[in-house]
Amino acid sequence: MKVIHLTGKEPLVQAIVRRAYPSYRGNKFKLRITDTVNASSSWQGGSRDYYKFVKLDGMIVTDQMPAQSQFDKTVPGLNEVRLMDGVICVEHSIFQGKDTGITIHICEANAVPLLPAPVELTEAERIVLIATKQLKGSYDGRKPREEAALEHGVDKEQYEAAKASLIARRFLNKAGAITVDGRNAVGNERLVL
Q1: Can you say whether the dihedral through the CA atoms of 142, 144, 150, 155 is positive or negative?
Q2: CA 111/CA 114 separation, integer angstroms
Q3: Alpha carbon distance 168, 22 (integer Å)
Q4: Using only C-alpha atoms, what is the Rg of the chain?
Q5: What count of other Cβ atoms lies within 10 Å of the Cβ of residue 83?
Q6: Contact 36, 83 (CB under 8 A)
Q7: Strand pairing category for 48-55 and 87-95
Q8: DSSP state at residue 68
Q9: CA 149 to centroid of chain Cα atoms
Q10: Three-class SS state of 150
């Protein structure tokens, strides 16, 4: 299962979310590529997930999945709903009373229009992005990101050049924090520390 972060400004994402949850005004969006979805939904500890299925051809939305409580009989098959070609599942999550955003579950065959374009990074840019995603900028007078980059063969001059390039390409913001595009560029990669 692959997770891709979205800005929510993508036209198809906007159309899908407007159809599924017209009143949603948040800014947290993810795309999860998978063949099945656990669409069982019940309130537990202030947390709940809401599910709607959308047929991409015509943006036809199903009614919301049935609400469940811990005391209701389990609806058979909701724990593993297979996504059919041309149908996606849109999940709106509340975790301990806080809105945690929208996740679009989609099978790989339908995901192509929503996937970000592949990007090419230099080795220094890749290491700087991963270090930025994984580590704090400064801690106790140290700079863990720069130290990790140095351990992986990126000297201070290369680090600054890569950081400037990533800011120009909008993989890092002006303050040096990783953006949605930056997260997608390195995916789940991690530096071995």
Answers
A1: negative
A2: 5
A3: 34
A4: 20
A5: 20
A6: yes
A7: antiparallel
A8: B
A9: 25
A10: helix
Q: pTM here?
A: 0.74
Positive or negative CA dihedral for 159, 164, 166, 172? positive
The 10 Å Cβ neighbour count of residue 143 is 17
Task: Give dist(CA 74, CA 77) in Å, integer.
Answer: 9
Question: pLDDT per position in the chain (193 positions), as tens?
Answer: 688 888 888 888 999 999 999 999 998 999 999 999 988 777 777 788 888 999 998 898 986 666 666 667 777 777 788 898 899 999 999 998 899 999 999 998 888 877 777 889 999 999 999 999 999 888 888 889 999 999 999 999 999 999 999 999 999 999 999 998 998 899 889 998 8
As beta bridge partners, residue 50 has 92
Where are the chain's structural domains?
2-114, 123-186
- The three-state secondary structure class of 178 is strand
